Amino acid sequence: MALPNLGLLAGFIAFVKWNGGIVLGDKSNHVPSAHVVQLFYLAAFSAGMSVFTILGGVPLARLLKRPSVRSWMVILATATIMAACIYKFTYVHPFLLADNRHYNFYICKLVLRNQTVRYGMIPIYMASAYFCWQALATEQTLLWVTIYVIATALTLIPSPLIELRYFITPYLIYRIAMRQSRGVWLALEFLLYTAINAFTVWMFLTKPFRWSHEEGIQRFMW
Questions:
Q1: Cα(178)–Cα(174) distance, rounded to whole angstroms?
Q2: Who wins on pLDDT, 135 or 105?
Q3: Which helix (H) or strand (E) holds 209?
Q4: C-alpha–C-alpha distance, residues 127 and 13, integer Å
Q5: Mean pLDDT, residues 106-114
Q6: d(C-alpha 134, C-alpha 177), whole Å
Q7: Beta bridge partners of 174
Q8: Using CA atoms, how far apart are residues 73 and 71, in angstroms rounded to an integer?
Q9: Could you tell me which of 149, 176, 146, 141 has the C-alpha nearest to residue 57?
Q10: Radius of gyration for the alpha carbons in the chain, expressed in angstroms and rounded
Q11: I want to staple 160 with a disulfide (CB 3.0 to 4.6 A). Which of 33, 37, 78, 92 is the partner?
Q12: Which pTM does this prediction carry?
């Protein structure tokens, strides 16, 4: 069963060698980096998008289990490592600051350009990662989760540009693999996705604007 995957891996290695890197298109603006904080953004995105599935699929007692003294030591160590990663490996790509049509522009302006908010997000990142871990751990083995995290890290960390679309494939794998919710929780998840899509379409259609340095109408988009 591993042979098709080995063939895929060999093909990927051959492509990277032939292409001179993993980047397609404009290589000068997509230089691979050590953007470790991408994993923090993915955790917050995944937890936010699957919040109702987590609440409906994972026992509340497991989510809110009282931490032991040892757990508090792990929490403090994790927070310290996260702070170091944010300090060392946060990248603000020029594209993020140049195009105010994309929601990432406003997220970057709110979170990344304000030091207090940037580090104040650490508890949210930690809680998000913990909830996502619990959602997967109730259904998957430790080996599966470990491989998933490694594969996701290899995909996201090299990218200096923050794009929500980069999170779609890791999120879908996570969403399929986690414990599934039923009934009202599934309906709430559907309503959440519908509201996000409806808001996006509404902004695109009804809130056009113009740039002073360029002809034509600009519209909000992901």
A1: 6
A2: 135
A3: strand 209-210
A4: 36
A5: 79
A6: 12
A7: none
A8: 5
A9: 176
A10: 20
A11: 33
A12: 0.83
Rounded CA separation 82/122 (Å)? 7
Tokens read off for 126 = 């930690």
Q: To the nearest 10°, report the CA torsion of 133, 107, 194, 222.
A: -110
**Cβ-contact 63, 131 below 8 angstroms:** yes
From the list 214, 197, 213, the residue with the least C-alpha distance to 205 is 197
- Reported as a single tens digit per residue, the pLDDT across 83-104 is 999 988 888 777 777 778 888 8
Residue 152 exposed, middle or buried by CB count within 10 Å (0-12, 13-18, 19+): buried
Which amino acid appears at position 218 of this protein?
Answer: Q
Q: Could you tell me if 31 and 91 are in contact, meaning their C-beta atoms sit under 8 angstroms apart?
A: no
Nearest one of 132, 153, 21 to 89, comparing CA atoms: 153
